[in-house]
Design goal:
alpha+beta, Aminopeptidase, nine-stranded mixed beta sheet, two-stranded antiparallel sheet, 11 strands
Length: 214
């Protein structure tokens, strides 16, 4: 479990997969992010389509450092999911996504805190510093939450996105995506040290404190 200020993040399990899909596609939050009438350009995915997009590794330890979902916990309840994909340690970058389970949990700061917590986790564990998220420009509430979490709008063409994430990779799901980016930076007085835990076989970074660079 990864602890934030208002939330905790629990690595999602394969048994969470259907629930996370229902939060996305069949909840009272769904109309605010996909499907007609407001988002005819982004149809609500079927269960099969969701499973193709969110393969099993997003819900298993095999996805660590590659692409992984987490259940956002607040007040002892699952209030949504946050995750990362396109994790590239060479470029120190990752793409994030998030949605909450019900409207009653929106506007409470859970999403902002979950994003902050995930960014710190990926920075501490993998040295990832560049985080991207791309909401529709129609989703003002999402953009406001991402701004509170330190994301800033950046101008990136499709060609630049392919250069960053690989040929044929596109994070623009809507006809009006806004690409937002957050950069974590080290304090100048600190020198990062990269190490590998011999028992767990994973990298970690020490001697640094992440800060948000707008």
């Amino acid at each position: 479990m990864i602890s934030g200020v208002r939330t905790r993040l629990r690595p999602a399990r394969i048994t969470d997969r259907k629930k996370i899909y229902l939060w996305m596609a069949h909840s009272d939050v769904t109309p605010s992010m996909m499907g007609p009438p407001d988002y005819p350009d982004y149809p609500i995915p079927s269960w099969k389509e969701f499973c193709q997009e969110y393969a099993e590794h997003f819900f298993r330890p095999s996805g660590d450092g590659r692409g992984r979902n987490f259940v956002i916990i607040a007040g002892g309840e699952g209030v949504g999911t946050v995750g990362y994909d396109r994790c590239n340690r060479g470029k120190s970058s990752a793409v994030l996504d998030i949605w909450l389970s019900e409207e009653k949990y929106c506007g409470r700061g859970y999403g902002t805190d979950a994003l902050n917590t995930l960014c710190r986790h990926l920075f501490d564990r993998y040295g990832i510093r560049h985080f991207y998220i791309s909401p529709s420009s129609r989703n003002k509430r999402a953009a406001a939450a991402y701004t509170k979490a330190g994301f800033r709008q950046v101008a990136m063409s499709r060609r630049e996105l392919e250069k960053e994430f690989g040929r044929g990779v596109n994070i623009l799901d809507y006809c009006d995506n806004t690409v937002m980016k957050r950069v974590m930076k080290w304090r100048r007085s600190a020198r990062p040290r990269r190490s590998v835990n011999p028992q767990e076989g994973r990298e970690s970074w020490s001697g640094v404190r992440p800060q948000c660079q707008p």
